[in-house]
Amino acid sequence: MKRITLAALIFAAFPVMAQVTVKDPWVRATVPAMKATGAFMQITSAQDARLMEAKSPVAGVVEVHEMTMEKDVMKMRALAKGLDLPAGKTVELKPGGYHIMLMDLKQQMKEGDTVPLTLVVEDKDKKRSSIEIKVSVKPLAGSGGMGAMGGMDHSKH
Fold first, then answer.
1. Which of 51-55, 81-85, 99-103, 153-157 has the lowest mean pLDDT?
2. Superfamily name with CATH number, domain 15-133
3. Please, what is the Cα angle at 130 between 43 and 29, to 5 degrees?
4. DSSP assignment, residue 108?
5. Among 2, 74, 123, 157, which has the highest number of CB atoms less than 10 A from its own CB?
6. Any residues with CB less than 8 A from the CB of 78 and at least 6 apart, and which?
7. For the whole model, what pTM was predicted?
8. pLDDT value of residue 11
9. pLDDT, the chain, mean
10. What is the DSSP letter of 87?
11. What is the mean pLDDT of residues 57-71?
């Protein structure tokens, strides 16, 4: 019995990484001249955590972004401190809100392609882990792949 208790105490001393699930990830298709696009998904963490960064070999720069409207002006900014993932709540990354910005694209994002994306999540103890996902490239419904960000140049961020 003492061995089981000791083993349980040793196990309890190690931090448990927040379980994070990603649902319905997709990247917006681009036309040949576009150098930026967005990645969207729903993220749910079992414990309080924070999406700190994202990486992809298809882009020179990848950032966690927020898009907001202020007095009829669209503002987009990188979230330097990451994006909160409250325990048990789904955080939606979607056009016009939080998203992953892929800039300095190395190739055109064509409908039907798959893009590798790594999400870096930090738990409440500041321990980081990576989540590797494959993301489908899709057009935004009714936009021919352009959508809200299609005509914007994000290469100067």
1. 153-157
2. PCu(A)C copper chaperone (2.60.40.1890)
3. 60
4. -
5. 123
6. 63, 64, 65, 101, 157
7. 0.78
8. 36
9. 83
10. B
11. 92
